[in-house]
């Protein structure tokens, strides 16, 4: 049993696709795997991101999805989870999330927990996403990209993880968000250098553009998982 936290350098960086593609790759390698989310904002019912995970994985919704174990907090407002919860007179309790993940761990080889936005997004007035990750010692996988600004955001995320003694298992370099060839290659080079500085043998793996979610491309993302 292993749990990994999938975080992004910012919102709309491709965490949901990266998480689903990693799950699909692990499935193909013979592991039992389930995805989860800390919280979901901007929807009702079952998490839209969990639904996309299952679609890319090629499976139906699971009993754990129906029971809200894979995403215990869902809010209407498309906002930071602490604000979305407050607008519905609710508060996110970190222990509820932790208990849900612990329950999932009992039935699967790998649990992939997708974050909400970036690593320092607040879940309530006192707790950031990174607080849960650090308390549970979940290795994290960072989703970055070649887009302009990624170097700064990625290095800040690596610094935050290092300062909290969080292990970074690797970086998924989302090629859907292309820039010029020079920026794409230089950004990758700089990010990889700082990844190695803090995390030794951690890998950077490219995620190709997904043009058809019913037939996603093959990847070697499973090399990020021990």
CATH H-level superfamily: P-loop containing nucleotide triphosphate hydrolases
Query: What is the total tally of β strands?
Result: 8
Major sheet strand order: 2-5-1-6-7-8
Number of helices: 8
Low-confidence stretches: none
- Give the name of the CATH architecture: 3-Layer(aba) Sandwich
The portion of residues forming beta strands comes to: 15-25%
CATH topology: Rossmann fold
Mean pLDDT: 95
The CATH class: Alpha Beta
Element string (H = helix, E = strand): EHEEHHEHHEHEHEHE
How far apart are the termini? 11 Å
Structural class: alpha/beta
Shape: globular
The number of domains: 1
Gyration radius over CA: 16 Å
- The portion of residues assigned to helices is 25-40%
Describe the structure.
- The protein is an alpha/beta fold and 226 residues long.
- The protein has one domain (2-224): 3-Layer(aba) Sandwich (Rossmann fold), CATH 3.40.50.
- The protein contains eight helices and eight strands, in the order βαββααβααβαβαβαβ.
- The chain has helices at 15-28, 48-57, 63-66, 81-87, 94-105, 129-136, 150-163, 181-199, and strands at 2-8, 33-37, 40-41, 74-75, 110-118, 140-144, 168-174, 203-207.
- The strands form two sheets. A six-stranded parallel sheet has the order 2-5-1-6-7-8, sandwiched between helices. Strands 3-4 form a two-stranded parallel sheet.
- β6 (140-144), α7 (150-163) and β7 (168-174) form a beta-alpha-beta unit.
- It starts with a strand and ends in a 19-residue tail after the last strand.
- 44% of the residues are buried.
- The mean pLDDT is 95.
